[in-house]
Design a protein that fits this description.
By secondary structure, the protein is mainly alpha-helical. It is built from seven helices and three strands. Among the domains are: 77 residues, no CATH class; 45 residues, no CATH class.
């Protein structure tokens, strides 16, 4: 019971709801049989209010594939905005093109930033792993035998190696 009330209050606070021209139109007092159905095919046009959560989730997943890693290195927000703009224009032959306003864009961008941040942190944690003293002891390696990070040269890309860095022993993968 509490969740629908919270959602209703949140939706009522959006500018799209509070600043609209609903009072100028007479949708609530329609004539029941105001037109005769002619048997035309239903329109394939889908308005911005006809999308469901699954379609927005698929849009975010599509946009995550197009995050530019070079741009993400400097600003993840700009990279996510760029990828989301590209996805809106191209996803499912432009299904969302011209139908997402600024408020919806910010909501989608926030959801995408959360997912990209989690993905980025997981990738960063995967590339560097700190080894404790008992790990070294189990492997039979002495700390004095491990080279410092600044002395290691010419390691091929993708090869993992153990180095000392700032007093810690890390497993690093060369990029």
């Amino acid at each position: 019971m509490l969740v629908p009330n919270v959602v209703r209050r949140y939706v009522a606070s959006l500018p799209e709801v509070t600043n609209n021209a609903y009072g100028y139109f007479n949708y609530d007092h329609r004539v029941v049989n105001e037109r005769v159905p002619r048997g035309d095919m239903p329109s394939t046009y889908r308005g911005p209010n006809s999308f469901n959560d699954m379609e927005y989730d698929s849009l975010i997943a599509f946009a995550q594939q197009y995050v530019n890693p070079g741009l993400a290195k400097y600003s993840s927000q700009v990279a996510c905005e760029d990828a989301l703009n590209l996805a809106i224009r191209s996803f499912n032959r432009g299904m969302f093109d011209g139908k997402i306003n600024a408020n919806k864009f910010n909501v989608l961008l926030g959801a995408m930033m959360d997912k990209v941040k989690v993905k980025h942190e997981a990738a960063k944690a995967k590339k560097e792993m700190v080894l404790k003293e008992h790990h070294l002891r189990d492997l039979g390696i002495k700390k004095k035998d491990i080279p410092h990070a600044h002395t290691v040269r010419n390691i091929p890309k993708g090869v993992k190696h153990i180095v000392q860095e700032h007093g810690r022993v890390k497993v690093k993968e060369n990029k």
